[in-house]
Amino acid sequence: MPISREGSDFDVILVSAEYWDDHPLCPVGVIARVLESKGFSVGIIEKPEHDEDFTKLGSPKLFFGVTSGSIDSMLNNYTPLKRPRKDDPHADWNPMPDRAVVAYCNALRRLFKGCKIAIGGIEASLRRFAHYDYWDNNVRRSILLDSRADVLVYGNGEKQVAEVASRLKKGDGLAGIPGTCVISKELPDGFTRMPSFAEVRDDKLKFCEMQMYFSNSRALAQAYDRNFVLQHPAPEYAPADLDEIYALPFSRGMHPKSQLKMAQFSVVTHRGCIGECSFCSLTLHQGNRIISRSEDSIIREIEALVNHPDFKGHVDDLGGPSANMYGMDCTNACGDACLACATLDRSHSRLVGLMRRARAVPRVKKVFVRSGVRFDLAMESREYVRELSKHHVSGMLKIAPEHVSKRVLALMNKDGSRFSEFCDLFNSMNKDTGQTLRYYFMVGHPGDDMQEVRMLAERAERLGNAEQFQLFTPTPMTLSTCMYWTGLDPRTGKAVKVTYDYATKKKMKTAITHTFE
Ligand code: SF4
Question: Is the pTM above the cut of 0.85?
């Protein structure tokens, strides 16, 4: 019984606010398989509500691993205007407690005195230092202090969790594990001391200063009264690590209420994103470098999929955070932004080769690409755009220009300059197929105002096919959230106009959605 929802005497018990799918896209599913592959037995508790839910598997021999899963619980539970999603009868909503990680840790501390707790997943990762919390409208301290966890795993967590388990099995301490944060009484040598919690709470310039230190590759420290929160730099993940992880024997068995059902036969090609959009938390989670799996490993996974009893011939998605960054790996740790680098391989040649091999796998009828496509990068390869639109799109391709205002786009760290060119190229290639583009836009980002929204509405009306207008939500630790809280661009120190009042935010959303009614 290496992984189970029932039983007792487990080495590790994972507690998740999401259902467990034995699937490579399910965070708790991946961690369970990795621990199992290292010889640890794993119990899984999904969405516990009552004391009996927490105690049903007994006490783990090593530690509890606590996560909200693939989304922050506050983002999950509230709309961008802070309305509870539970009040919306039409929302496809996955209920979880507010601040799930803290709530679960408090319950475990109460029920299992002295137990070891590791926290991880997006909620822990993006709240590892002091952060602006939109739902409190205030600066909160590191979640390590609120949860009283022994260790916080940030970013890709497989190596860290395996190390935590093996150290605890040997009776060793948890200090110094790459890719983790811990509380320490001392400030060790080699750590960069960021502004303290008290400083960033009370001083917006200090908050901006802290923002510019954030990086997964640095040893960082933040002072809290008599303690420090220490971040050990993230471990290197190489293509071979990903090949090993995605080769684990996931059954792709889905929980009946899984949110991942539409992605049962998706295949992950790479991790990380070099886009570094200001509003996106991916850079501080998976990192700003691409790590691509080997083509052979991906093809082996697809060859195994065709034998799954539920497989109907369709690979649901072949992608990663941005579908067309596959193969854009760089091992040079220069610290500069990859997108601006002249040596970045923008040819898409590895990806085109992979797409061809994937659709040639016997019994595969169609390989869809549903992950987002960075159209500015895609413009570097007509061959890729042709291949994509001819073989991998199901009627429409979704792209995310986000805005059309140069001012807002600059604050978003997005390059919209090739948007029209991409639309023309895609449309010319699809004159006879009827395939169309769909667009995602965002309003209410710092720098946006009613005038900019009207400009966006006019352009969107001319384009037609707007898929979604998202209202900006300031999520923890992003650059855009720092702009929202401080009214400053931390990169330049310049003031940024921010819309705070909900009535105007609502007007922005209404102005643009009415365009399409
Ligand atoms: S391109 Fe997509 S995944 Fe990458 S940083 Fe931007 S929003 Fe995030």
Answer: yes
